[in-house]
Amino acid sequence: MKTVKTRNALFAGVCVMALGGAALVWGPGLLDDGPQPLPGPAARAMTAAHAGAPASLPDLAVLIGDRETWLREHPEDDASWAVLGAAYTERGSRIAQAADFGRAERALRKSLAVLPAKRGNVDAQLALGALANARGDYAQGRAWAERVRKQKPKRWAAYPVLIDAYNGLGDYAKAHKAAEALQKARPTAAALDLAAQSFRDRGWREDADATAIEAAAHAGSPVQKAACLYRLGELAWERGEPAEAAAQYTAALRLVPAHGPSLAGRARALGAQGRAAEAFRDYRAALAAAPLPEYALEAGELYEAEGLDRDAARQYEALRARVTEAGSFGVNGEVVLARYETDHGAPRSAVRRLRTQWTKGHRSMEVADALAWALYRTGEAQEALPYAKRATEEGRRSAVFSYHRGVIERALGEYGAARRHLAEALRTNPSFSPLLAPKAREALAALGDPPPGGPGAGSRSSPGLRPGGAPRAMGVPPA
């Protein structure tokens, strides 16, 4: 499922990084420091950067090559090192190429060696913040961006980095304030897209949808418009409209055929419509474009739901391999790995991983939900419930979060609350997971109708009845 995004999944969200992270830190001084004029594709990439928009991947590649060539002859150009590091970070995020993050860090450290932070190297600091976010180190991302904001309070490029970091840390109030400040400072399509995400996280679906539509209307390039259409697809998916979601993803793919997030999103939507063969096609294409472990997990669970266990096993093995490989370049893949372990055989390991993330301050809705579910799967439903409540009460309307909370409440004998949250999961998105949505329907049916006397009656005393009056068995169900 893409509802858990370790952000947002793992790179805190591919779309946020492209629209609001590294692409925003390339300062206007570059053209004075670099060769004149820049080649056409590199110039287009710089133009996109100055507008706060993502560059196309071919243009980004040309810009990287151009800066590498220039820096071989001009190694003391701190601005070009910062540009190169930011470009590596964006490319690494967009195509899930973690090796680019190592290249980015070397370039950015070189920029700071030439012009230290205390002497005003703001671009390198912001790029390091974006790099930290891309690796899943949100505390470090926040630290870099807040340092820049203190040095240069009017530097609008700090806000997207802060928004990404705050979201990863679960500080949604600060993320929302930063999104508002960005809109005031620079009301662009990128700012509108980030505002749509903030509205979605607060549960304001109508505002999120309207703002995402406005962002798409203001997008200045095919790459940026595709990112905004992807956002609209995600919003449609989360409210249980797979056909509408697929249409938005398809529109994005007409503009950028290898847009990994839209390929994975359309695969998910097609799977929900019973079009498994087409879904597998799109998952293969998504993994070719950006081999994210999240995509492998989604594909594996669809294969499993279709009874294709060998194919599922191959995806799960690929997931573990990708997390390990990315980890060698500093990427934190613990949350997606823990999600896999929870539902596929090692929940105690998942609890250990997620407790470590929580201790590090990674307290997003996704981490709270994942920890709640892992604790439940180890038989610790009582300890799980506060985390499940935290995930569901932040505001976002997530079918997965509601399902997990409902199952935990059922295990604790809180049948009224369990019935309410299981029904909410299916009402929010009846096809939220190829493996879990059928279990949600079974669990809700097992609880039976509410007891006489209103919604609260018998909330802890009645175990619920199966159709026909047979008591439901208690305890933790199998995976």
Characterization of this structure:
There is one protein chain. With 479 residues, the protein is mainly alpha-helical. The protein has three domains: 14-290, Serine Threonine Protein Phosphatase 5, Tetratricopeptide repeat; 291-332; 336-447, Tetratricopeptide repeat domain (Serine Threonine Protein Phosphatase 5, Tetratricopeptide repeat). Helices cover 69% and strands 0% of the residues. The chain has helices spanning 14-20, 30-33, 40-50, 57-73, 78-95, 99-114, 122-135, 138-151, 158-169, 172-185, 189-201, 205-218, 222-238, 242-255, 260-272, 276-289, 293-305, 309-327, 334-343, 347-359, 365-377, 381-393, 399-411, 415-428, 436-447. The two termini are 16 Å apart. The model is unreliable at 1-36 and 464-479 (pLDDT under 50).
Q: Main attributes?
A:
single chain, 479 residues, mainly alpha, Serine Threonine Protein Phosphatase 5, Tetratricopeptide repeat, 3 domains, 25 helices, globular, disordered N terminus, disordered C terminus
Helix coverage percent: 55-70%
Decide which structural class fits the backbone: mainly alpha
Radius of gyration: 23 Å
Tell me the CATH architecture of the largest domain. Alpha Horseshoe
How many domains? The number is 3
The low-pLDDT segments are 1-36, 464-479
> Under the CATH scheme, which class of the largest domain?
Mainly Alpha
